[in-house]
């Protein structure tokens, strides 16, 4: 059980890398399944293009949406976007950074699918076989006696080895190799463009806007960590709340036993242990002991989150010596500014630590 808990904590702490790996593995597995099964091109001029392009485009769109569904940060992005402003101003750059980060991870699987499909070349062959120049691979003598419709139907049958019945008119093997070579060339070009785009996004962008990039990255991490800590605090409070409720329930239905424990000898240390446990539970409840109060806390957290300004308040009861009353500003020891001898005394300074953000 400890090993599974450690593994879960590791995956939770490395959620982004884990999600990237999951998306890549899903794309590779799906592409492998696609290659394992027999390719069923319709070999009909009206449907070849739609079938081939559909296999090249529709699965990447599904993988892209699946990447958004499996990413837990989508709910955090939607919550931050739709929350009331309250005491925190929403920063569009933070939302944009979070959306771009989620989108980048969701694009891994579609990129892998498109690359593997182009490298395989079957869908590309099915889609563009009718656009092949038949005179480059066919017998010119036999082609001249065929109509345009017959030529298109013959080209549409090139992806289908079992139903291609005119090898003397056109070399199917040569035509297939030619189209697959073009498909693989497009695949390598696609990989090169995606790699260059990833390099431009991840390496060059921070060089031009380093300060803004660091600020945006920091506060996006803050929003994520704050949400996780709030969830953990709510879970801990709910656990303690349930524990205290159950304890009070059992104590209420066992009044005789409770009275007996109250009149025990002071030599028994269990009373001290119970007091310590109750004190610990009280600390975990954070002063919230009622359902309505907890609902109010949750509602206020959603509608008006606290401002991002941390400060250390001055202790109560601290005296301000040296200040002259307003009615004695012209006394012997008073000055025109209300202080003794016209100078402010050396008062202890307050310590403030204030952090501002536009999140």
Automatic annotation (TrEMBL):
Membrane-crossing residue ranges in chain numbering: 21-37, 49-74, 185-204
Keywords for this protein: Ion channel, Ion transport, Membrane, Transmembrane, Transmembrane helix, Transport
Compartmental location: Membrane
Tagged with keyword Signal: no
UniProt feature, compositional bias: Basic and acidic residues: 276-286
UniProt GO cellular component terms: plasma membrane
An annotated Gene Ontology molecular function: monoatomic cation channel activity
A GO biological-process term: ATP export
Main localization of the protein described in the UniProt heading: membrane
Membrane topology: Multi-pass membrane protein
Region (Disordered): 260-286
One Pfam family matching this protein: Ca_hom_mod
Family from the record: Belongs to the CALHM family.
Name of protein: Calcium homeostasis modulator 1
Organism annotation: Oncorhynchus kisutch
Gene: CALHM1
